[in-house]
Amino acid sequence: MIKVGIIGSTGYAGAELVRILLAHREAEIKWYGSRSYIDKKYAEVYQNMFQLTDEICKGEDINQLAAEVDVIFTATPQGLCASLVNEDVLSKTKVIDLSADFRIKDVKTYEEWYKIEHKSPKFIEEAVYGLCEINRDKVKEARLIANPGCYPTCSFLSIYPLLKERLIDPSTIIIDAKSGTSGAGRGAKVDNLYCEVNENIKAYGVAVHRHTPEIEEQLSYAADENVIINFTPHLVPMNRGILVTAYASLKKSVTYSEVKMVYDKYYADEKFVRVLNKDVCPQTKWVEGSNYVDVNFKIDSRTNRIIMMGAMDNLVKGAAGQAVQNMNIMFGLNESEGLELVPMFP
Prior knowledge:
Elements: E1 2-7, H1 12-21, E2 27-33, H2 42-45, E3 57-58, H3 62-66, E4 71-74, H4 80-84, H5 87-92, E5 94-97, H6 107-114, E6 128-129, H7 132-141, E7 144-146, H8 150-164, E8 174-179, H9 194-197, E9 202-203, H10 212-223, E10 230-235, E11 242-249, H11 256-267, E12 273-275, E13 293-300, E14 305-312, H12 316-330
Parallel strand pairs: 1-2, 1-4, 2-3, 4-5, 5-7, 6-7, 8-10, 12-13
Antiparallel strand pairs: 8-11, 9-10, 11-14, 13-14
C-alpha cells in the first residue's frame, strides 16, 4: 500500500483527495493535515466522512510527515508548499503540489503574477508539470509534481491537438472560461457569499488572472514559439465545473473529418479525455464528479476560425483527480486506479 499524507486536507481540493483516496485500492491515508482543525476528527469537519474515517486532523509538519509516508499531497494556498519543501523532504518522499508554486518555470513571472516571493526557486526547474496526457513519461521519474491548475488543464487539452499540428495561428487564441464557485476555495470571502453569487454571472480577473502565464507557457511548449493569449474567466452560480470556449484563426481550410482525425490522434488512447461526436457541445453536467474532460470543436468557415470547447470538474480533473492520476503514474499503478468515477447526474 502507498502511504499518503495530505497537507490541506480540509479545503475543497483536499476533501476531494480524501474522497478519491478512501476508495483507492493501493493507497492508504496516514496523515490528514489541516492548519485550522488540528486535533479535530476529520469526520466532524466533513460529515459525509462519518464512519468512513476516524482519523484526527494533524498539523503541517512536513519533515515528520516525510518520514512516515511515500507521497505527500499539498492542497494549500500559493506559497505554502514552496516554504515547506526542502531537499531532505524530497530525498525521503514524493511531493505532489496542487498550488501554483512550481508550475511556472520563470520565478520572476511567478512572483509578478502571484505577488509573493518564491521561497524555494531551486526546485522549480526540477518540478514536472503534471499534465498526465502530455508529460506522462516525465511524471514517471519525478519526485516533485506541479499539479496543473483547473483553467489551464481544460484550456490546454481543448486547444493542444490543433496547436501541436500547426492548424491554428497561436497569436489569435482567445479563451473564454467559466467556473463553479468551489474553484475559489473554502475560505470565507464576500464575493463568494450566496447572495453575491446566486442568480449572477460575472467576469473577473479580466486581463490579469494569474492562470494566464501558466496557460501561455504550456501553449508555448506545444507551439514551439512564444504564445500570448486573451484569457477571461467567469464565475457561475454552481458548485463544480469548468467550461472553456476557445477561439483561433485557422491557417488553412479544413474539413470536420480532418480536424476530428487530429483530436483522435492525440486522445483516442487517453482514458480521461473524451472527444465528443459531431455537433455535441461539452457540458459540465456530463462530467461532474468525474476525472473526464469532454472536448469538441466547431469550424466556422465564414470567419475562417475554429471554436474549441472543453468541460470538466474543476475539483477532480482540475485538482484532486489529476493529482491521484499523477500518483498512479509515479508509482507504476494502473493510471485509472481510484478514478473510475462515473459522472454524476443530476
